[in-house]
Amino acid sequence: MKARQNILVKNPVAVMTGRRGEHARAGGVDLRVADGRIVEMAPGLVPRDGERVIDASRCVVYPGWINTHHHLSQNLLKAVPEGMNEDLQGWLASVPYPRLARFTPELVRTAARLGMAELLLSGATTCADHHYLYHAGGDTSSGDALFEVADEFGMRFVLCRGGALESASSHPGFSRTALQPETLDAMLSDVERLKARYHQSVPDAMRRVVFAPTTPTFSLPPALLAEVSRAARAMGLRLHSHLSETDNYVRFCRERYNCLPVEFVAEHEWLGPDVWFAHLVHLEPSEIRLLAQTGTGIAHCPVSNSRLGSGIAPVPQMAAAGVPVSLGVDGVASNESGSMTGEVHTAWLIHRAAQGASATLAEEAIHWGTAGGAQVLGLGEVGTLAVGQAADLVLYDLGHPRFFGFHDPAIAPVVAGEPVTVRYSLVGGRVVVDDGVIPGLDLERLRAEAFAGVTRLMAQQSD
Ligand SMILES: [Zn+2]
């Protein structure tokens, strides 16, 4: 882990706080960081002895993005030809699941390095990874590998420990492999092991574990759903999963259980402020009310939903109803990019295309990507820029012609989208991007590792 630095960020062009409405902008302030926290935000701060001064006169400052739904292992499965034009079910069956057992912890490590490098250089500082490469008799150490790579990069990391349980034969991906799902005892004992080794419950945790069977409707029998949620709550862990990603998903739930997916999970104790679901694309108004009443959150993944033709989640309606909204890039095998700036840009645009020009404000999209993420992950001391908060902040350099001419440069990284240049990024006062580069990252070596990994997965595929 890198050392903390005491830092003075001087003269930024603008500061976005991650908060909503009139609190979205901090005005012309400098920021002082000491012992991992923001200790002052005020104009004209004077450097102190031993403090590193960062000239931010070409930069805007944001809280680091909080990515609440990723599958880092998919960084070695971008643009797999047989899945490029498939919907979710066809894509699951042709891209990730046939290769599930072929991912060694070493390949997961390489994929995670690619993903974390891309996240950091897009302005993300926290990643929640939904890792589901588990099966009966398989090596479970890939979860540990993810924590180790997060340590290398200095990212805040939440492992959402996924997987499927006995009788998961209806899962559209799993059922087409020769693999057997885990038993509940095996999954529980690994979650307990991970919790004991890594989990921190404090609101500025660097490491968290979440209980996250891959999907409630397909990955485990209904009888075990409440057992899993009770076990997670007894351990003080949050719950995460996929829900209502496609219209097929809703149809399956109606036909099999005679109810809507959100009603189904409600019956099995899977709603609450300690639960968030990825996607939630197809929702009835009654389901939005149920999510809002229970404080259940969403990881909105607009790029993956577009790429797989799944639809557009009714996120402005959810936000208006009071559902906690966050953003996730989803796996890059159904996105082809793991950039949070790209995701926030798309979240800003897509609802305007569908619902009109005032459907999503830039400030609201920034809130979803920062404070919204902190809320669903229960990390109350990150996601906003304020005195006392952990120093997770990003400086975007506007010194490129594409950022010249802005009347409101504060929102430029979101409304102009990519490419952006992250000049500096801090996680808990540790510099994780320094003058545009990730310290210690050997890009040529990473490129060679990625090439070797892809070659290995392709060769095995054709065996
Ligand atoms: Zn996903």
TrEMBL record:
<dbReference type="InterPro" id="IPR006680">
    <property type="entry name" value="Amidohydro-rel"/>
</dbReference>
<protein>
    <submittedName>
        <fullName>Amidohydrolase</fullName>
    </submittedName>
</protein>
<dbReference type="InterPro" id="IPR011059">
    <property type="entry name" value="Metal-dep_hydrolase_composite"/>
</dbReference>
<feature type="domain" description="Amidohydrolase-related">
    <location>
        <begin position="60"/>
        <end position="432"/>
    </location>
</feature>
<dbReference type="Pfam" id="PF01979">
    <property type="entry name" value="Amidohydro_1"/>
</dbReference>
<dbReference type="InterPro" id="IPR032466">
    <property type="entry name" value="Metal_Hydrolase"/>
</dbReference>
<dbReference type="InterPro" id="IPR050287">
    <property type="entry name" value="MTA/SAH_deaminase"/>
</dbReference>
<comment type="similarity">
    <text>Belongs to the metallo-dependent hydrolases superfamily. ATZ/TRZ family.</text>
</comment>
<keyword id="KW-0378">Hydrolase</keyword>
<dbReference type="GO" id="GO:0016810">
    <property type="term" value="F:hydrolase activity, acting on carbon-nitrogen (but not peptide) bonds"/>
</dbReference>
